[in-house]
Amino acid sequence: LGPGTTGTWTPRGRRSVEIVSSRPTGCTGDSVVTPVRTRYTFFDVGAAANKVRIERTFSFSPGTPNYTGTVGMRPYIPQMPGEYSKVLYPNAANPSALVLADTSAQPMATTQWNKRWLAINKSVGNSGLDSGLLILRETPSTTVRLILQDDGTANSSSVDLVRPTSPGAGGWHAPITETEWLCFYDVTSWPSQQRTPTNLPSGCSITPVPINTAAPAITGTAKVGNELSATPGTWDYSTGVFDFQWLRCGGGACTPIPGATGSTYKATDADEGNQLRVDVTAKAAGGSETDTASAITDGTKPGPPQNTALPPVSGEARARETLTGGPGSWTGSPTSFQYQWLRCPTAAGTNCLPISGAATSTYALGRDDVGSTLRLRVTAVNALGPSVPADSAATGVVQAEVIRARFTISPNPSCTGLPVRFDGSGSTTPNEPIVRYRWIYKQYSVGAYAFTALFAGQEAADAYIARQPDLLLSDGTEATPTPSFNWNRQLDHEERPGRLGDYTRDAILMTLTVTDRSGAQASVNDNLAFAQTYSSQSRTGCPKALDATVFSAVAKVRNISVFATIAQATVPCPSFVDCLGSLKIVHYVRRRTRRGRVAAAAKTRAPARRAVVLARSRLFTIPARKSRRVSAKLTRSGRRTLLRGRRVRVKVRITSITPSGRRVTRSAKATLVRRK
């Protein structure tokens, strides 16, 4: 081609480079510049075989002069180091045999070369060099020959493109493309005894290679929340199937973004301040892959909040129930949220429309919602503006109303002596009104429940509560009873953090059963806890009582009766709090003195007396404003003292335990007689 320029070098993917040059001056009267494009594609498939694909295109055009003579185009393969003076190629007459020749047998005709391959070996031993050279050739677009040159100082080869001589061709008037493959081998990867026309070095073959001719491009503004799109660019020898990988770039390095493998990508908060790039991998028909990268974007600007988890919605999809929604999870530090409930006519939650006035995080379902599904739409707002709205998943289809028991407990937890309001007025029914509220409760030890659940399982723990007796609080039309609770037992064994003798307040499982005018019933239960579990604990954790609770110590014991082994008495509880206490019957007898020695002072004052306990009760509980019969077991002294028919003067002591744990004792005189 004559004198030329170095041209321009352009990367084409990760393993291809393209050199475009031209002949700057005329040749043989030619005034038209002939551009030449050469592409090198490099492979590394292991130590056994490395190869390079060389593609040359001569862009002749109809205006190109018609070169005369037998001049051919000779794109030279670069000289390789070492001594190259022996060649191997398939035998055209006998393809199963090889031809060994030296460089004096040049040029090689197409029939000799057989259009397959040519190997250049060391001259001695035909065993290959440290890096042998194997030239393969794709199907040519014009007649070619191989020329080997060995002038003693250089060893090189070239493909001689023979001037077209077909009828009407008249010379070089159309672009000509010639492709060779250079494979490097050694005696290990391709032993001489294995060199046949069909057995090439490992990894050395003519394989279609996708070559990028125009880099991928990213469209869109790099801003948090914006969606960017990537085009794969243009490729030669590609099947049109492309893989994408987005990368986040900063500090001179780019890192793949997990999961970002589509042609589009929405920038997130993690991209803020970083640049973005996309890598595109193309595939050829033979399975070969090549990747290339786009230009990187500008630094990603901050944007409105981005949703990372859809808004949750809880609650039963039924008329007269309430749905409660949350904002979900967002990036971008939202400063506020906007809510809008949507009603959807389909079970799949499609074709949804906003519900007028439903713009808070909760929504009370009505009869108009029956048969529909609902979604909650949330919009997050920060200083950069509102986000793209995020819709929750669709609820189930809203069902018709049924009778439903509901109640609240306030305060919860509470403390002994404080009023607790149970409010069941929120119970609903389609057959209004509710005509009966039945309040039943069970008392259970939280420690025993937890211990049973830990060592015997949840089912056993639930069975423990079920075994506790039912206690009636209220049964009637009262929807809001407000009782106060006292201690319910005394510790006779260690319960941490309580101590022996402490009074305790067990937790309460309250059950409400409602009945409507049609006779339909529904029940619900909930737990009331106590902040002060033991009387030795501080009451600083107790809520403040809104109303003063009146507590009166038990007094005025009535109707005392003595039987064979027990004494019974009617004990009233005048307090608004359940009364807790114990009963003791005491008889006083004269203290005996030593025989024969009477103090002088005994003539002027009554002799000392001692108290004898005739009966005592266990700790009892009496419901507030109620009375109950309390049993006290007779002691041995009591059974002996209270002989049948004998009247005995005694004192009856009632010890009350206040809600704060203080003891209050009152006494009353009585005359007892043991019944026959």
Number of beta-strand segments:
47
Apparent shape:
elongated
Beta-strand content:
35-45%
The N- and C-terminal alpha carbons lie at a distance of 144 Å
Instruction: Outline the biggest β-sheet.
Output: 9 strands, antiparallel
What radius of gyration results from the CA coordinates? 51 Å
Catalogue the unreliable spans: 596-601
Percent helix, as a range, is under 10%
Average of the residue pLDDT scores: 84
Category by helix and strand content: mainly beta
Strand order of the largest sheet: 1-2-3-4-12-9-8-6-7
Discrete helix count: 4
Keywords:
676 residues, mainly beta, nine-stranded antiparallel sheet, 5% helix
Would you kindly provide a written description of the structure presented here, covering whatever features stand out?
By secondary structure, this protein is mainly β. It has 4 helices and 47 strands. Strand 6 and strand 7 (98-102) form a beta hairpin. The model is unreliable at 596-601 (pLDDT under 50).
